Amino acid sequence: MKGICILGSTGSIGVSTLDVVARHPDRYRVVALTANGNIDRLFEQCREHRPRYAVVIRDEVAADLRERLAAAGLGDIDVLAGAEALERVAALPEVDSVMAAIVGAAGLLPTLAAAKAGKDVLLANKEALVMSGQLFMAEVVRSGARLLPIDSEHNAVFQCMPADYRAGTRAVGVRRILLTASGGPFLNKPLAELESVTPEQAVAHPNWVMGRKISVDSATMMNKGLEVIEACLLFDADPDDVQVVVHRQSVIHSMVDYVDGTVLAQMGTPDMRIPIAHALAWPQRFDSGAEPLDLFGVQQLNFERPDLERFPCLRLAYEAVRAGGTAPAILNAANEVAVAAFLDHGLPFSAIPRVIEHCMEVVATGPADSIEAVLQADEETRKVAQKYIT
Ligand code: NAD
Ligand code: MG
Description:
Elements: E1 2-7, H1 12-22, E2 28-34, H2 39-49, E3 53-56, H3 59-71, E4 78-81, H4 83-90, E5 97-100, H5 108-116, E6 120-123, H6 126-143, E7 146-149, H7 152-160, E8 174-181, H8 191-194, H9 199-202, H10 212-220, H11 222-234, E9 242-246, E10 252-258, E11 263-267, H12 273-281, H13 295-298, H14 312-323, H15 327-343, H16 352-362, H17 371-389
Parallel strand pairs: 1-2, 1-5, 2-3, 3-4, 5-6, 6-7, 8-9
Antiparallel strand pairs: 8-10, 10-11
Helix pairs in contact: 1-12, 2-3, 4-5, 5-6, 6-11, 6-15, 10-15, 11-14, 14-15, 14-16, 15-16, 15-17, 16-17
Bound molecules: nicotinamide-adenine-dinucleotide and magnesium ion (MG).
Magnesium ion binds at residues 151-153, 227.
């Protein structure tokens, strides 16, 4: 029986994780659930999964949740408040696996705490890895943590690696990593119309249902850009050896191209419970609840090169990973600010890459040799981005 902590349990990945965990009560016990918003959902999750701890960010929300749990006869669930409490529950001795599913930079310190404590880190929160890069990977090696990618593409690559593969190492015989991308909702939209697309149009992804931030990232293809950086770190790959392949159907979730000409692909329905179940059961397999793949229904698989003019965010991400140091943290922070402003109707869709490019020009890149340096780059970039937007 393994203990699990789910950072960001009320989000899209958090909910899918609890769905898979509930199918295997003999394998997993929920130790801690954490959330920022959506306290009604957190309350329901506490009722159903009976964690030992529930963590929220604000004190008044914690007081409210405590009261509701007590009234429901669940006063034995410890309700903690504050960002530090996230780090505490991620490192608890009774926790074996941590699902890192907070969105954005807010997930960095708790995810890092899980890595430092040597947990099985199930990594969905790609922004945390993009920001902290080699620092994060070094902690994983030092502590002996096991890093299991949840992002469907990286989970697919991981599955196509040799059987004894450990994330962070370069596998012998790998030539290229082929990261598939659906292209999002605006793959074929006339460029002139992109200026006026609304948040509602941008979050309507053709194949996946996800949180709002990653949905906008999919529409700009910054999501794929962050994933290129994520792949360089997870698989110790050179940016030139990570090829983005636009694949509309989202059936192949990514591929590994070996030096002998073999290409291994992982396929399945677009359902995040598949990579989640893979990482939870690893190195075994168990039921995820996902529908089996119906290839006769799919019929066709198409592949295209990405268009870097239509999707400048993807170009900027390649530039950031090549620049190294704090450049990926700067890219990420600028993107988070720009996406939040767009979702708030305060920035046109097509201005998102302009905000990021401006920040990358203005904020000086330094070595990412400490978490403080990374957090400082993040903070400075947020200020520059805000100023540019307003
Ligand atoms: P979401 O917005 O649905 O959920 C985010 C979770 O984080 C929620 O529980 C929220 O309460 C919590 N949270 C938000 N801000 C917080 C803060 N400041 N402090 C503490 N907690 C906070 O997002 P999601 O779609 O589940 O994505 C989560 C992560 O997984 C992202 O990094 C995303 O890129 C990655 N991911 C998601 C998918 C997907 O299908 N949804 C696929 C691949 C990767
Ligand atoms: Mg992905």
